[in-house]
Amino acid sequence: MNIVIRSDVGKIRKVNQDYVRSYQKSDDEAIIVLCDGMGGHNAGEIASKMTADDIIEEYQLHDSFNGISEIREWMHKVINHAHYKVQKQGEENAEEEGMGTTVVLALYVQNQIYISHVGDSRAYIYQDDKLNQLTKDDTLVNVLIDAGTISKDEAYFHPQKNILLQAVGVSEFLNISFISTNLNDHILLVCSDGLYNSLFDKQITDVLAQDISLENKGDELLALANKFGGKDNIGFALMTVKEDNP
After folding, report:
1. Where are the alpha helices (DSSP H) in 62-200?
2. Which pTM does this prediction carry?
3. Residue 119 in contact with residue 138, Cβ under 8 Å?
């Protein structure tokens, strides 16, 4: 197993509100948590770090999992736990009122990837030279797409494309996703909007297809995101269980 994490403030922002962590328990089990914070002052930075750290801590305390139902229940439980923790912190501190964050939680257990998310940070699987998006953004434009009001192409340039329908710490209740897929020798990409809004899918797949190490792929993705975008913080993680290239 190989996990590569990158997080960068970008070219415009002064504070990096993206926060990415991983923890590997064994050759057969590991976790990745990515959060993209929001809120005034440093509140977004606080919310994203609180959420990721809380989930990682809960994972470190957890014993082995017993089946997909238990995994789904646990993933939803830890995201909600972080949600109420961030919510309480915002209520008790005026400068942090209204702070929130997206979250993508990716759990790897015995070659299977389980993903839960809230917000518009994403998880992808790169396989057969294609980048397949696993998560669905919790955004207003996705509702408009589903209703047939706008097309996917129109959504890309829509002025309200960044309006979230839910986020950790700010929503009353969370509708948490759950997706399961086999990792095999594919590459898992978990990222904030700072990456996918800076690069086209083709640019990402061109990097992931290269015969270079996962570390070098991470470096190249970050450099390209800053070159062609960099207007937002950039955070992402790559995971693969295949043998890394030299």
Report:
1. 68-92, 140-146, 152-156, 193-196
2. 0.95
3. yes
